[in-house]
Amino acid sequence: MSYHWCHGPSCHTYSTQDRVRGSKGSKVLRTRKIKVNNNGYPSGFYKYFCSNTCYNNFADKHAEQIVRIEPRTEPLETPIEDPTKEKHTTSWGHTYYDHTIKKRGVDTSME
Ligand SMILES: [Zn+2]
Asked: What pTM was estimated for this model as a whole?
């Protein structure tokens, strides 16, 4: 078992009971601690962020640095078959279409 402090820049400002620490007269709201078990759970970003809100706050604050990890100067593309469109009419006369987009082969752009 190990732990990380939540990396959310505002984690320590949210007024929840579990963040209250300290002794009477000198209470604080403290950044949440995330316990990571020996199987590495929680995994991914949940090891470092207590919530999606804290993750989003961090990503908003550091967006410029984050995109520099893997800059995208060109769009990626996934080959597809020509899309098909199937018309349906319900028994009460409503018309709708099913659009089918089928991927062709395996996308290797990320490899
Ligand atoms: Zn947090």
From this structure: 0.75
